[in-house]
From TrEMBL, chains A, B:
It comes from Larimichthys crocea. Homodimer. This is Cysteine sulfinic acid decarboxylase. Belongs to the group II decarboxylase family. The modification N6-(pyridoxal phosphate)lysine is found at residue 270. The lineage of its organism: Eukaryota, Metazoa, Chordata, Craniata, Vertebrata.
C-alpha cells in the first residue's frame, strides 16, 4: 500500500498561522528547546515543494546532490565576485557556463549567473541597448530616440518589468502575435518592427521564449533569427523554463536556431531541480561586452595591482556587488548524474506529460486547452453538472470559477498543489507541470482522481 | 596553547586549482565516493570566511542560528512570491521588515528583501523616479528632462551601477564633496542641487551613506534631510554596511535623522552575520508605492480570485519573479539572541575596533589613515626601511606597493586575509573590518604581529 503521511500543505489562515508561529521579535533571546520547536513549526507549516504531489510551479521536486551543494554553499558563505575570496567558485562558474554554452551550440562566449531569470532578461535588454548606444551608460537615455522591444503576447512578464525598470517603458514593449500553440509569429514580428521604425522608434531587442510559462510554447527561433538578422536587432532567448530540453537528443529540436541568438537566459532551478536560485545568462559575445556594459571598476574590490590574473574577478560583469554562489549545486549535480542523467530527467518529464495527456483523453470532464508541446499540461476540469452545457450563456463564467474552487479545497485538504490561471480569452484553467523525477504514474493517477473528487459536486 | 590547524586560505594558482578540482562536466555520472571527495576538495580550497582571521570583507564570521535557518531554507526550497507557496515566509518577512523599520524609527511603512544592497539602492532610485514621474513606468524616460542623482564621493559604486542600469546614466550621478572623515558636506549638496537645476536637470534622489564601504563614515542625515526637504527630493539612506548600529543604544546616534529618510537599504548579511544574501529595503511610504511602481499583475501567479487575502502575495512588489527566502535566517537568529544580543554584537565590534586602534598607536609602523568612526580600521603599514623617509620623492609610490606585497604573502601563507585599496589621493592602505564575535584580542594581536612579520623586510 502506498500511503502518504506527509501532506503537501498544512493550510492555516494567515491570522492563525501568525499566532502559531509567534512571530514577534523581542529584546531577549530564547532557549535551544524553544528554537528547535520553531524550526519544526517552520517546516511543518511550509509547503513541501519537494513532495511529488507539488505541481504548482516550475520548481517542484528535489535533487539530493544539488541539495548537498546548497548546504555546502551556505556553510562556506562567500561572495562570488573575486578569485581572492571565491577561488573554487570562480572556476566552477566558468566551467558550468562553458558547458551550458556548449549545449546552446557556442564554442566561445561569455555569461554569468543572475539572481533569477528576470534579472537575466534585464541583462539582455541592457546589453542590447549598450551595444547600439554605448553612451547610454554615461549619459542615460536622455536625448536618445524612443527604443522598442519585441516579445510575444505569451512571454514572461519579466520582459515588461525589465522595460519599466531600465527606463524603456512598458508601452515600448511591442507585443507580437502568437499562433494557436502560443508560438510567436515571425511575420507579425517583422511587420511590427517595420511599423515601429516608421513611427520613429529604434527597435533594439527581440525577446523570444523557449518554453512559455503557461502553455510551454517554443517560439520558432530559426525564423525569428532571420528577422533579427534582417533588421540587425539583438536576439535574446528567454529559455528560463525550456532551456533544459537542450540536454535531450530527442527534444532539443524545439530550440533549433538558438545558436543564432545573441543571448540566452536559462534557469537550472526550474526543470533541472538545482534549487532556488540558479539562473544562467549566456552570451555569444567575445568582446567583453558584459563587463564593459556593467563595470564600475571599484578600486576597493577590483584592484588592478593584484598578484593574480584579475580577469578572474568576475564580479564587475554584474550590476550586483555581493553575489551568492549559485553554481556549486549545479556543478555537483552534473558531476553526479552526468549530462546523460540530465537528459534522462528531461525525457522522463516529457513521458510523464504524455501519460497525463493520454489519461485525460480517457476521462470525461478533462478538456485540454491546447496540445502540449512541452511538459505543461493545461486543461479545464468540467464538473458533471456542466457537461454538455457549452452553449449556455453563463458557461464560461461558471467554468472560470471551477479551478479556483477546486484549488481552495485542494489546499485546505493539503493533498496536492497545482496552479491555475486565465490566458488571453480563455477562462481559468489548470496548469500541471510534471518535472520531478520522483513523480510516479501512481501520483499522476492520483492527481486526476483527486481533481475529480474535489470538483465533482461543483 | 592556542593553535590554528585550519588556515584561512589554501592558496593555489588558478591553473593548478582547476586541475585539482577536475572541473570538466561529462556525459556520465560519478560514484558517491568520488563525489564525497569533491565536496571535501571544494571545502578545502575555498576561503574560510567564518574563520576569525578572515577580515577581508564585511561578511566574515558565522552565526550558527542563522546557518541553521539557511539550511532549512535550502531544504524547504520555496519561492517568496505568494502566500500560497510560502505562507510561513510571507509572514516572517513582514515581521522582520516591521522590526527593522521600528529600529529606523517608523511605526508604519513598507519594504522587501532584495538580492543585495545594490538592488536595494536601485529600488530607491526607481521609486524616487516613479514618484516624480509616474508615467515613466509605461513610457520610459523618453521625452523626460534629464534626471540627476546626488551622492558623496565615498558612496558605494552601486549608485553608479544603478544609474547606468536604470537609464539615468553615470554622468548624471553628481558627486558631492566629503569632509576629512569621509562624510558628505550638506552645503556642497545644496549647491550642487541648485547648480543642477540651473542647468535644466531635475534632481530626484539623494543617496546618503551610513557606513561608507572603505572608511566607515556616516553622512550627517539630519542636515541632509533639511536639504532634501527644502528641494523636495527623495532621501535614500544606503545603510547596507552601517545600518546595524541602530540596534545599539550607544552607537545609534551615528544615524540620527534616519527616520526622516524616504527609504533605507540595510544588509543584515554584513554586520549581523545573517549569511549571504540578506538585504532589506525599507520604506516610509504607506501608499503602496513599491507595488504600484513594480507590479505587472501577472495573472498566472497573482490571481485576484484566490480564496485568501491576495495582499499577502508580496512578489509583485519586486522586479524579480522567483525570489529566494532571505528572511528566515535573520528571524531565527533574532529569536535566538534577541535585539539585545544583536546590540551586544555591534557594541563588541566597536570595542574590537577601538582595541586595534589603540594597539596600532603603540606600535611603530602602523599609521592610521583617519580616525575610525565605525569598525573599519584604515591604516598604512610602513616597513622599517621607509620610516622617517616621508620626504623622499618616491615615498608614496613605494608605500602604495607595500599593501599588495603583504597581501600576496598573507594569502600564499594562508594565515589571515585583509583587504586593501587606494582612496581619492591616498595610496593603497589596509582596511580591517572586525565584526565577527569570534574574534579575540589574541586574534587582533596576531593581525598586527603578522603584518609586521610579512612586511618588515619590504
Ligand atoms: C519563461 C520564463 N521566463 C522567465 C521567468 C523568470 O525567471 P525567474 O523566476 O527566475 O525570475 C520565468 C519564471 O517562471 C519563466 O517562466
Ligand atoms: C555602503 C555599501 N552600500 C551598498 C553595498 C552593496 O551591497 P551588496 O553587496 O549587498 O550589493 C555595499 C557593499 O559592500 C556597501 O558597503
Amino acid at each position: 500500500m502506498h500511503v502518504f503521511f506527509l501532506q503537501v500543505c498544512e493550510w492555516r489562515e494567515p491570522e492563525e498561522l501568525a499566532q502559531l508561529l509567534d512571530l514577534e521579535l523581542k529584546a531577549t533571546g530564547e532557549s535551544q528547546d524553544r528554537l528547535l520547536q520553531r524550526v519544526q513549526d517552520v517546516a511543518k507549516y511550509s509547503i513541501k515543494t519537494s513532495h511529488p504531489r507539488f505541481l504548482n510551479q516550475q520548481f517542484g521536486g528535489v535533487d539530493y546532490h544539488a541539495l548537498a551543494g546548497r548546504f555546502l554553499t551556505e556553510a562556506l558563505n562567500t561572495n562570488l565576485f573575486t578569485y581572492e575570496v571565491a577561488p573554487v567558485f570562480v572556476l566552477l562558474e566558468m566551467e558550468v557556463l562553458k558547458s551550458l554554452r556548449q549545449l546552446v551550440g557556442w564554442t566561445q562566449g561569455d555569461g554569468i549567473f543572475c539572481p533569477g531569470g528576470s534579472a537575466s532578461n534585464m541583462y539582455a535588454m541592457n546589453l542590447a541597448r549598450y551595444r547600439l548606444f554605448p553612451e547610454v551608460k554615461s549619459q542615460g537615455l536622455y536625448g536618445l530616440p524612443r527604443l522598442t522591444v519585441f516579445t510575444s503576447s505569451q512571454s514572461h512578464y519579466s520582459v515588461k518589468k525589465g522595460a519599466a525598470f531600465l527606463g524603456i517603458g512598458i508601452d515600448n514593449v511591442i507585443v507580437v502575435k502568437v499562433d494557436d500553440g502560443g508560438c510567436m509569429i515571425p511575420e507579425d514580428l517583422d511587420e511590427k518592427i517595420k511599423l515601429s521604425k516608421s513611427q520613429g522608434a529604434v527597435p533594439f531587442l527581440v525577446s523570444c521564449t523557449s518554453g512559455t510559462t503557461v502553455q510551454g510554447a517554443f517560439d520558432p527561433l530559426d525564423r525569428i533569427a532571420d528577422v533579427c538578422e534582417k533588421h540587425k536587432i539583438w536576439m535574446h532567448v528567454d529559455a528560463a523554463w525550456g532551456g533544459s530540453v537542450l540536454f535531450s537528443e530527442q527534444h532539443r529540436h524545439l530550440m533549433k536556431g538558438v545558436d543564432r541568438a545573441n543571448s540566452v537566459a536559462w534557469n537550472p532551478h526550474k526543470m533541472l531541480l538545482a534549487g532556488l536560485q540558479c539562473s544562467a545568462f549566456l552570451l555569444q559575445d567575445t568582446t567583453n561586452l558584459l563587463k564593459r556594459c556593467h563595470s564600475a571598476n571599484a578600486t576597493y574590490l577590483f584592484q588592478q595591482d593584484k598578484f593574480y590574473d584579475v580577469n578572474l574577478d568576475c564580479g564587475d560583469k554584474t550590476v550586483q556587488c555581493s553575489r551568492k554562489v549559485d553554481c556549486l549545486k549545479l556543478w555537483l549535480m552534473w558531476k553526479a548524474i552526468g549530462s546523460s542523467g540530465m537528459a534522462q530527467r528531461v525525457d522522463k518529464a516529457f513521458i510523464h506529460a504524455r501519460y497525463l495527456e493520454e489519461q485525460m483523453k480517457k476521462r470525461e470532464g478533462f478538456h485540454l486547452v491546447c496540445k502540449p508541446e512541452f511538459v505543461n499540461i493545461c486543461f479545464w476540469f468540467i464538473p458533471p453538472s456542466m457537461r454538455g452545457k457549452e452553449q449556455n450563456a453563463d458557461y464560461q463564467d461558471r467554468l472560470g470559477k471551477v479551478a479556483p474552487a477546486i484549488k481552495e479545497r485542494m489546499m485546505k485538504q493539503g493533498t496536492m498543489m497545482v496552479g491555475y490561471q486565465p490566458l488571453a480569452d480563455k477562462v481559468n484553467f489548470f496548469r500541471l507541470v510534471v518535472l520531478s523525477p520522483q513523480v510516479s504514474t501512481k501520483d499522476m493517477d492520483f492527481f486526476l482522481d483527486e481533481i475529480e473528487r474535489l470538483g465533482n459536486d461543483l
